[in-house]
Amino acid sequence: MLKKRQQRTEKLDNNSILDQIERVIRWDNEFRLAFIKCNHPAQQEMLRRSLLERLSDQRILEIPLEKSIVSLLDEIGLPWNLNQPPVAVCVYGLENSLREQGEHSPVLGRLNHERDLLRQSIPAALLIWLPDFALDYVARGAPDFWAWRSGVYEFQTDSALWQMESIAAFSDHDAVSLDSLSWEDKQKEIVRLEELLRTSQALTRQDNQVKQTNCRLLSQLGFLYDSLGKQGEALDRYQQSLKLARAIGDRAEEGMTLNNLSQIYRARGDYETALRYLEESLAIQRAIGDRAGEGATLNNLSQIYQARGDYETAQRYLEESLAISRAIGDRAGLCATLFNMGHVYLQKDEHQQALACWVATYRIAKEVGYAEVLAALENLAKQLGGSGLEDWERLSQQMASGE
Q1: Which residues pair with 89 in a beta bridge?
Q2: pLDDT value at position 175?
Q3: CA distance 257 to 399
Q4: Which is it for the CA torsion 396, 397, 399, 400, positive or negative?
């Protein structure tokens, strides 16, 4: 019953806002500027249709902007009919022109510059539909144009839609596929996740489910920023995720985030901080029975000791990690551990054992189709004076015949 009551209240609120927008449109035939905040494309489409039904007796000009633009005046001027002028112009998709440069986007500079021309050219209500983040950009990037607004009409952010969009973002990529994205696609994914994070602030209920989703958004952002070499941004997102995970008692997320933080400090050469985070992570993963996480953390611990030249300790951690990966059937974990173990053996001048580890890695990666692992093995073969994957195939066959 409680959920139904909330849905009814939201519907009434939306109708009230639609009433206000309708009054703005019917008010007179002079220029009026209004912004409509709506964070979800699906919700926007539903509300758009409702508004048009209410205004079926009026002429409305709709301007959908699917690509980035420079001049809103030019976009409106092309379809404008002087003989049958509309009472309102509805603009959708202006956020597509703001994502790359934010408040410094050229279209915002033009809006400030052309605001008088817009007022003279459009004797009608100008309604610009935008999500939260884009409204902030307009307010900062076109302050003079923004000052002309008669109002900002805010539709309540739909928490169910936000959760669905967030889940879709997580489902589209795992860590391996995220890492293999191009630089441009990683930037797009960052924009997508940052928008979801920004939208969550508008949710009326900040329950544990929302906070848990935000943890994952922040962790994924940290991973993407780190993969682009933006360690400062990565650290910030990971620290936010860690704070949130601890606040809601999400031990699994806390352990994973500590592990991720350690990798940034390891890359910076701050091994003491990296070790501290890894040891905290390992304790949590053992306490909650996260075997896959434990295996990954042991693997990462080995890399710290390898970097310090303590190969015996590094190998011990790798052997523990290997045993866990075999026990739980984690083939990706097996590949990572065997690959790293090969490097430890190489450092110890135990070349045959190193080759055996890399051949085992090759066999698993080939069977499962781990493209990233195969690419790493190809590069390794060339570093060792070979030609590529064919070297591992040949070695694999030789070892198989000798077994």
Answers
A1: 61, 126
A2: 67
A3: 40
A4: positive
> What digits encode the pLDDT tens for the residues 12-33?
488 999 999 999 999 877 899 9
Residues 202 and 147 in one domain: no
Position 282 in a domain: yes
Determine the Cα–Cα distance for residues 278 and 261; give it in Å rounded to an integer: 9
User: 167 with 130, same domain?
Assistant: no
CB atoms < 10 A from the CB of 208, how many?
11
For 320-368, write each residue's pLDDT tens digit: 999 999 999 999 999 999 999 999 999 999 999 999 999 999 999 999 9
Number of domains present in the structure of the chain: 2
**Separation of first and last alpha carbons in the chain:** 68
Q: How many CA atoms lie within 13 A of 343 on its CB side?
A: 19
Q: Rounded to an integer, what distance in angstroms lies between the CA atom of residue 69 and that of residue 85?
A: 23
Judgement on whether residues 20 and 138 belong to the same structural domain of the protein: yes
pLDDT tops 50 at residue 260: yes
Which residue segment(s) compose the domain that 262 sits in?
160-289
Residue 41 has pLDDT above 80, yes or no: yes
Domain assignment of residue 336, yes or no = no
**Cβ distance 258 to 280 under 8 Å?**
yes
Same domain, 119 and 196: no
- Half-sphere exposure (CA, 13 Å, Cβ side) for 40? 19
Within 13 Å, how many C-alpha atoms sit on residue 313's CB side? 11
Assess if residue 333 is contained within a domain.
no
Of the residues 247, 274, 289, which one is the last residue of a structural domain? 289
| pLDDT at position 9 over 50 | no
pTM beyond 0.90, yes or no = no
- What are the helix (H) ranges across 173-230? 175-179, 183-200, 208-227
295 within domain boundaries = no
- Dihedral of CA atoms 62, 17, 152, 58 in degrees, nearest 10, equals 30
Closest CA to 22 of 72, 56, 64, 61: 56
DSSP 230-263: -HHHHHHHHHHHHHHHHHHT-HHHHHHHHHHHHH
**Shared domain check, 112 and 7:** yes
